[in-house]
Amino acid sequence: MLRARYGRTVIEARELAKHYRVHRRQPGLRAALRSFVRREHVTVRAVDRVSFTIAEGEVVGFLGPNGAGKTTTLKCLTGLLHPTTGAVRVLGHTPHRREPEFLRRISLVMGQRNSLFWDLPAADAFEVNRAIYGIAPGPYRSALEELVDLLDLEPLLHKQVRVLSLGERMRCELAGALLHRPDVLFLDEPTLGLDVNGQAAVRTFLRDYNTRHGATVLLTSHYMGDVTALARRVLVIDHGTLRFDGDLAALVEAHSPHRLVRVTLRETVPAETWAGLGEVSSIDGAVVTLAVPRAETAAIAARLLTTLPVEDVAIEDPPVEEIIRNVFAHA
Amino acid sequence: MRDVLPAYPSLVRSATLVAATYRGRVVLSLLTAFFPLLTMAVWLTVVAEGGPPDGWTTDDFLSYYAAATLLWNLTGDRVVWQWDADMRSGDLSVRLLRPVHPFHQYATSDLGQRLVFLVVLVPALVLAAWLVPGLNYPADPLRLAAVAAALVLAYAVSLLMASTFALIGFWSTQTTNGWLLWWGLGSFASGWVAPLALMPDWLRTAGLVLPFRTTMGFPVELLMGRLDAHQTAYGFAVGLGWLAAFALLYRVAWRFGVRRYQAVAG
């Protein structure tokens, strides 16, 4: 149903698998000497038969714990890695062939990696990107003006990239990655290490960019705030296997049988009042939070309003972090 | 290649800007640019004590190593270290994502840095050739044009040889050590240790067909007017042959090597 709102498929992974052969040895001198003579290797199944499609203009969150296979999948989709088996198509191209026409239409922003020229001022670094992507002067000027405006880059343009703070650098990274107006944007932890304001600025910008240009976005992040702010659909991966693909709301519904009802009372009531209404999650003065079965939320809220001196009632889902933890805990 | 060429000026310019960013580094690097003069000093001492070998004079050694200074700074071997560092750290990923093949990114980065040296070195050598007695380079326009072509060929062969060698990094972590061994052995056949004409027969014969002489001895001997038309044509033929061979080797190694890239660290 979600897919119907969007256009044609631009990203397709079919039975995608990426296995690594890695050298392994025990710690210590003896193990080091033994390993010098006889190498032990193990095969790591970083991604194992993952299939999904993403439509043009969609913003999809890619969730999973560390080592789940998110970044490996992203690297296969951008052509950095050759899949062990399976097939990947992005914008009609096979990514690992890395044709220039394909690379000019995508961008991968890696929160922990610098892609701009470290020793140059941001303005010079952008100019290099202009040359690399073969952007004509007119479109370059307009893209740069737009990005400088949206990301508030004017004060940063003439500073060396290496002296910028993490948040400033990430804003410049985003600008550098978007100068050529990619159709598909892959974001790997774009708000990693940023403070709350920095995270909010990046999220606002990305939402705005998606709206303005209709770019398809696939985002991995450990900050659930990034995902809830930007993505309606999520892919959940764990141990290299896709566990869930669908609406974020459906994920919440499927993995959280309870909703939280926060009641603000005009006066305190005895503790036994809550018996039969739900599980008391917390009591903070006059504010009581109840975890109630999802199906009975409306009825219980109505009972609260009619039987208790209620000043305010708020109904919300548990934090998505908690739900995701549940998904992985039960996987 | 047609797609890539328009990006060359900007990429070379940015590398020059990076190279010129740190003044201390530029000054120290410029000092190392004159390293061949140390070898020249050794040979001048040997010649002063034991007399010059047959066919060579003190002035010839002076001219040989002064010109060698230019070739010392016109080599692409620095790319081996760049490739190696980027493969280990995973920074190659950033280059792989750009619509310009990493070879051109490393080549332009190297060229840009070379320009900083050449801007200082070329006028210094021209001035020295004019003022220093004993430096003798026949100023025949045809020969100078051939020397210019030989210098371009020297850089191209050196860059492609180093880039091809760097791709071993897809299979092994010992690229730089391997390169040092390769370069060290090659320095006997290239003319770095001594002019090839002074080497034993077997080494001289081998040197004439190996790629190393193209990157050093050939352009220097040509500049000094020690090669006739036949020897010059032979030198170009060997150089162009190796250029084609390394281009082919590079393509094959890239095709199979890049599949093994693991894009480590994020």
What this model shows, in words?
The complex is a heterodimer of chains A (331) and B (266). Chain A folds into 2 domains: 3-253, Rossmann fold, CATH 3.40.50; 258-330, Alpha-Beta Plaits, CATH 3.30.70. Chain A contains 11 helices and 13 strands. Chain A has helices at residues 29-37, 70-78, 100-103, 122-133, 137-150, 166-178, 196-213, 224-230, 248-255, 297-307, 320-330, and strands at residues 9-23, 41-55, 59-63, 85-90, 106-110, 184-188, 216-220, 233-238, 241-247, 258-265, 279-284, 287-293, 310-316. In chain A, strand 11 (279-284) and strand 12 (287-293) form a beta hairpin. The two termini of chain A are 26 Å apart. The model of chain A has no long low-confidence stretch (mean pLDDT 87). Chain B is built from 12 helices and no strands. The two termini of chain B are 31 Å apart. Chains A and B meet through helix 2, helix 3, strand 5 and helix 4 of A and helix 1 and helix 6 of B. Chain A: One of its GO terms (cellular component) is plasma membrane. Chain A: Residues 31-264 form the ABC transporter domain. Chain A: Keywords: Antibiotic resistance, ATP-binding, Nucleotide-binding, Transport. Chain A: Pfam families: ABC_tran.
